[in-house]
Design a protein that fits this description.
The structure is a single chain. By secondary structure, this protein is α+β, with helices and mostly antiparallel strands. About 30% of the residues lie in helices and about 25% in strands. The strands form 3 sheets. It has a 5-stranded antiparallel β-sheet. A 4-stranded parallel β-sheet has the order 2-1-3-4, with helices on one face. Strands 5-8-6-7 form a 4-stranded antiparallel β-sheet, with helices on both faces. About 0% of the residues have low confidence.
């Protein structure tokens, strides 16, 4: 029997992850997008969709019985596709990376001395398909280009039900941890775990926080997503905030930090 809370883990069964942690916390069964229609989800259940862009084949029937989906497949699809994300953000006036989807416009940036980030796929994860092209270099064909934003800091703003529930900053791993993971060179462009970076709650700059949180909330609203992690790039001169832009919005935000995980669980309970 299913409990009241239901977690949609992924389109097919696979390696345990955040979905498994959430289902354990709520004493909920995991379901997938491809479960057979006769596998009933209880009437009135809350379906926590952790990053699934595939609409479950049983969803229509479940909605007719009063179930609620937290993060619809349509909203997740907008988050997954970086081009669609940026279009939505710009349409709604949210400060975001400058972008284009044609080589001619990107070449114009290069010709004016501006570096370009080439995205060979609009749906890449953890920096997959990302290439930095400097002025004077050859520009390849790609579905998405973004103007290089010379950030000094990078933040993730966790949002649920229209509220900021957690706020963290990307920081370089310590030498001991880098050595343990076998990371010799820390990549300053692609700041993810595999490149030597982690999210941290300590030593957060106060200045600029309100602006960063406000644009993150606006970004989540623009995409119609109930919960997410908004990645924001920012520029500071020392401790003085200059500006910031939304880079992307994650429909399956990492929750490895107990603080972050507990914040989401509390938010889901309130929702």
């Amino acid at each position: 029997m299913f409990s009241k809370e239901v977690v949609v883990l992924r389109a097919r069964k696979g390696v345990p992850g955040v979905g498994r942690k959430l289902s354990k916390h709520f004493n909920a069964n995991e379901v997938t997008a491809l479960h057979k229609p006769q596998l009933k989800v209880p009437s009135g259940a809350k379906i926590i969709n952790y990053g699934r862009s595939v609409e479950p084949i049983w969803l229509e029937e479940a909605l007719e019985r009063g179930c609620r989906v937290i993060n619809t497949a349509g909203a997740v699809q907008l988050c997954v596709d970086k081009l669609k994300t940026l279009r939505k953000l710009w349409i709604h006036g949210v400060p975001a990376l400058s972008f284009c989807d044609n080589r001619e416009s990107a070449q114009h940036w290069l010709d004016n001395g501006q570096a370009v980030i080439v995205r060979h796929t609009t749906k890449g994860k953890q920096g997959k398909g990302v290439e930095l092209v400097e002025p004077g270099a050859n520009l390849p064909n790609a579905p998405l280009y973004t103007k290089f934003y010379d950030k000094t800091n990078e933040f993730r703003v966790h949002i649920a039900d229209g509220k900021v529930i957690d706020y963290v900053q990307k920081k370089k791993m310590g030498r001991k941890k880098l050595d343990k993971l076998g990371i010799q060179d820390v990549d300053s462009l692609l700041r993810n775990h595999k490149k030597g970076w982690v999210f941290a709650h300590n030593d957060l700059l106060e200045e600029g926080q309100e602006a960063i949180k406000a644009m993150s909330l606006a970004g989540a609203e623009a995409l119609g997503i109930d919960f997410c992690g908004v990645d924001v790039l920012a520029r500071y001169d020392g401790n003085t905030f200059i500006d910031a832009v939304v880079c992307e919005i994650n429909s399956a935000p990492g929750m490895s930090s107990p603080t972050t995980f507990n914040a989401y669980c509390k938010a889901f309970e309130e929702m």
